[in-house]
Structure formats: structure tokens, C-alpha cells
Design a protein that fits this description.
By secondary structure, this protein is of the alpha/beta class. It is built from eleven helices and 14 strands. Strands 6-7-8-4-9-10 form a six-stranded mixed sheet, sandwiched between helices. Helix 3 packs across helix 4 (about 110-120). The longest helix has 18 residues, at about 165-185. The mean pLDDT is about 90. The structure holds adenosine-5'-triphosphate (ATP).
């Protein structure tokens, strides 16, 4: 049975008269890599901060590992690791020294946790190198190591990929996949670039102006972005039967309202139109559809008007 790790219920945040997170309901289950996608200022950081108890909600609430009362939540929070921005590391200390400082400050037992965390993010070989000379990718990885020191079951990462070069993105993504695979770590990761989360996220929440517009699985998103031909006819069931019988087409769906979405044979659409017309079916329209992920997101936020 699936286990809810993080659930937000009508989570709301207001600053003065501005509602920056507005009744957001997201559900993240154990093992998910949940991509929170939205433009700058959409409210992603604020949601993550509320989940991590760094910001107090103005309304609604958060349930963590099944707990929503104050005591349960405070226990559950010890199972979270959060990286909301690059933590303030000491520029003249090494990776190891910085983590050791935070280990003591946070009262985490066992020196080995520093070594383990460094190993998890591939920073064991940085030796005497000081933080100030690290590349952005290394800084991000050290930030992740810090979030991993308490061996969290849930990782909250706010735009960790932002500013990384393509190689850094791949490396960071692989790290997260490995954590998820090896330790079943559940991950909430935000980004304003949907494609950065591709091949990483198992589900997505799209957020704009504080509203959650849509929440869907990676499979559902891929399905929605699939290349297809949408054919509008006067008799869709008959047209579908003809396409199957006469042309051997099977990969299509009949939508309510007289449209058919065809996913195969797209290179020769005239075969279909010729058949339908020859059989006396009225063809009202034919359109090649299919969005890449970024188009999908832009359509989604472009198509909604509120506030
Ligand atoms: P970004 O990637 O730019 O951080 P975001 O989606 O994470 O974007 P938030 O940082 O959550 O967005 O900000 C949402 C809105 O809330 C923005 O309009 C921001 O200006 C506003 N905001 C955030 N923190 C505060 C604050 N402490 N006081 C007033 N307004 C705030």
C-alpha cells in the first residue's frame, strides 16, 4: 500500500494583502520524486519552507509521515533534510570541516556521518580544497551532503539545479536517482525549468501565482505530450472502426465530442483522410498535436487566468 510522506491541505501563505500560496493540496508518496514546477515567484520556495517548518502557514496545514499534530510533526521533521538555498558555508574551511561544524552545531552523533555524506555526493576527494574555490556544482553537492547528514527519509530541494552547467545537471540528477533507488528517499524538488526534471521526477505539480494548477504522474505527463494527430469527424466510432479494419491502426483513442487522437501512422495522415472521405465520413478538422514538456507547461500556465 502506498504511504503518504507529505500531504499539504489547503496550504496558504499571505504576506500582507498578497496571497503567495493559495490553498495548495499536494500529495507525495513514499519513493516519489516530486517535481514542483513553476516560474520564478510562483510560490515554490514558500511551499517548501512551510513543509520544512521554516515559514508558518497563514492557513491550511502540512501532514508529514501521517502526522499533523504539533508533537507528531516535530518528530516527523527529524526525518527531513532540506536544501532551500546554498547554506552559508565557511569559505576558508574544507568540505569536511564545514560539515563537521554543522554536525556539532546540530548535535548529530557519530563523526562518520560526515564521511558518509561526503561519499554520497562524491566529494570525498576534495581534501584541503577550500569551499571558496569550489565550483557551483560542488557547492550544490556540499549543500546536499549537509541535508543528508541526518539520513532523511524526505529530501526537500529548492531549485538545486539552478545555475548548474549541463554536466553538473546530469551529475546532480544521477545523485538524486541513486539516493532514491538505494535508500528509497522521497524527494521534493522544485525547478522553473520543467525539462531539468525530466527523467528524474516520477510525478509533477505545476504551480502558478500560488495556485496548484495540476498534479500528475510522469507517465500521465508523457502521455499528454505524446505526438498525435487529432482528427475531428461527424461519426467518430465509425471512423475509428474503419481505421482499425481497413488500415490496421490500433494506437488511437476516441475522445468525447467526436475527435480521435491517432498516435501511429503520423507520417502518412492522408491514408487516413482518404479512407474516411471515401467512406462518406465528414472530416471537420485535422491537427498535428504534441507538445514537448516545456510547451505543455507554458500552455498550462498561459491557459489559466485568475486573481
Ligand atoms: P523563485 O524561484 O523566484 O524563488 P518561487 O516560486 O520559489 O520563485 P517564492 O520565493 O515562494 O517563489 O515567492 C512567491 C512570492 O512570495 C513572490 O512574489 C515573493 O516576492 C513573495 N515573497 C516570498 N517571501 C516573502 C516575504 N518574506 N515577504 C513578502 N513577500 C514574499
Amino acid at each position: 500500500m502506498s504511504e503518504n510522506v507529505l500531504v499539504t491541505r489547503d496550504l496558504t501563505k499571505r504576506y500582507g494583502s498578497a496571497t503567495v500560496v493559495d490553498h495548495v493540496n499536494i500529495t507525495i508518496q513514499k519513493g516519489d520524486i516530486y517535481g514542483l514546477v513553476g516560474r520564478n515567484g510562483a510560490g515554490k520556495t514558500t511551499i517548501i519552507r512551510m513543509a520544512a517548518a521554516q515559514t508558518v502557514p497563514s492557513g491550511g496545514g502540512v501532514e508529514l509521515f501521517g502526522a499533523s499534530d504539533i508533537r507528531g510533526l516535530s518528530q516527523a521533521r527529524s526525518r527531513i533534510g532540506a536544501m532551500v538555498e546554498i547554506p552559508s558555508f565557511y569559505p576558508y574551511l574544507t568540505a569536511r570541516e564545514n560539515l563537521e561544524y554543522y554536525r556539532r552545531q546540530r548535535g548529530i552523533a557519530g563523526k562518520h556521518v560526515v564521511e558518509d555524506a561526503l561519499e554520497q555526493v562524491n566529494l570525498t576527494d576534495t581534501g584541503k580544497k577550500k569551499f571558496k574555490t569550489f565550483s557551483l556544482g560542488m557547492k550544490q553537492r556540499l549543500g546536499l551532503a549537509l541535508a543528508l547528514m541526518n539520513r532523511p527519509d524526505l529530501l526537500l530541494l529548492d531549485e538545486p539545479i539552478n545555475g548548474l552547467d549541463p554536466e553538473g545537471i546530469v551529475e546532480f540528477r544521477n545523485l538524486l536517482l541513486e539516493l532514491n533507488r538505494q535508500y528509497q528517499t522521497t524527494i521534493l524538488i522544485s525547478s522553473h525549468i520543467l525539462s531539468e526534471l525530466q527523467s528524474l521526477a516520477t510525478c509533477y505539480g505545476f504551480i502558478d501565482k500560488g495556485h496548484l494548477l495540476e498534479q500528475l504522474s510522469a507517465g500521465e505527463l508523457a502521455e499528454k505530450c505524446r505526438d498525435c494527430m487529432e482528427i475531428k469527424v461527424d461519426d467518430a466510432p465509425r471512423a475509428a472502426a474503419l481505421m482499425e479494419q481497413e488500415l490496421g491502426l490500433r494506437d488511437f483513442e476516441v475522445l468525447p465530442g467526436g475527435a480521435i487522437r491517432l498516435y501511429e501512422g503520423l507520417e502518412r495522415p492522408q491514408k487516413v483522410t482518404n479512407l474516411l472521405v471515401a467512406q462518406g465520413i465528414n472530416l471537420y478538422g485535422m491537427e498535428h498535436r504534441g507538445a514537448n514538456l516545456e510547451d505543455y507547461f507554458l500552455n498550462l500556465i498561459g491557459g489559466v487566468h485568475h486573481g
